[in-house]
Amino acid sequence: NGFGNTFNHRYCPEVEGEMDSADGRLGYVPNLTFSLDQVLDDLSLLLTAGRLGPINRGIIKKATEEIFATDRSKGVRIAQQLIVAAPEFHSTNLPRKEEVPRVIKGYSGMPRHKYKALVFIMLQGGCDSFNMLVPMDGCIGKDMHAEYSAARGAHRIAKKDLLEIDASSSNQICSTFGINKYLPLVHKLYNDKDAIFFANTGILTKPMTNFDDWMKDSQIRLFAHNHMEKHAKAVDPLQVKSGSGVGGRILDKLRVQGYHTSANTVDGNS
After folding, report:
1. How many CB atoms lie within 10 A of CB 55?
2. For residue 187, which of 145, 115, 134 has the smallest C-alpha distance?
3. Overall pTM > 0.70
4. Would you say 141 and 251 are in contact if contact means Cβ atoms under 8 Å apart?
């Protein structure tokens, strides 16, 4: 973003002021005779079209002036970073500060249902699901653990190293599966009926096998990580509710049924 921080899969520099990995940088260099106020005038013009208000300007000046007095370049960089965090940078209208705190509105009555939470953790390529949930025993017509072991080779997990779970009430081919022994919490959540597995699931626009021409017959790019991540969050391959996410649609249905709902994210793409 021009200030030393990088996104995607590149590193964030550990040294303040290093911008070798940045996608771009602001080339502004103030005149050596400029005061901090003159620098803020210029940055306000460049970054906010002159709309930086007096209150936010005062906050930025107070946070910057001591550093600017001893290291002008660093002071300018900090002022730039603070301005891009201000509302004047993110909007084209004139911001108005109010002394009255914003009232956060919510539900006024007590919820009619017991609290429950759905936690969605996106493991972007960091989950070896075939070694998270492994077929064990009670398999119909074949030894699925033997097939799994042959396919995984040196990376297979022996039955003794798996935490067994009962899957007899499911429509899976095996009556017992094993959870990776390094996931005891997941094992406990499943046995407490607080977790569930969806096995053999994926994103398709029509039923297909590995003998079909998926590039011709499917609208989904099955081997593109970014496409699969998007569809995992949307779960709407036929675009019945285009632009929506599966979590939001669940909340909408619950709200109609009288549940008190809310959504929180720790990632901007959620």
Report:
1. 11
2. 134
3. no
4. no
